[in-house]
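re: ur msg from earlier - yeah i can do the zinc ion complex, just paste it... oh wait u already did. ok heres what im feeding in:
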Amino acid sequence: MTDVRIVGKALDDFGDDWHWVILHDAEPRGERRYYTRLVDTICGIHLDEGGVVVTLVDTGAPDSPDCPQCQAAGLGPSLRAQIEQVLEEAELVPVRRTTRSAEGVPREF
Ligand SMILES: [Zn+2]
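and the outut:
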């Protein structure tokens, strides 16, 4: 499994800066969906954990974050290339998450 890094922000705080959002150990689960073990940002914002399905929604994310801490993370050229590839594939940001209820029914927040 691989980490997927995208430029994004949390929908419940849409006035926030754009960050590098990392979907840890992401597995594609259909169009615009990833199962991921942990969702956080390079600057340390903890978005979700414990195994969630994230639905990516295109909200016109920029090519790079405007969060100073994420910008300062100093991404290397090869990582940058990976990110750009992901961005080309997705151009999406996670704004809605879905977890499984006890009955196994997807539940949206
Ligand atoms: Zn940030």
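cool cool. Residues 77-90 form the longest helix (14 residues). ping me if u need the other ligands too
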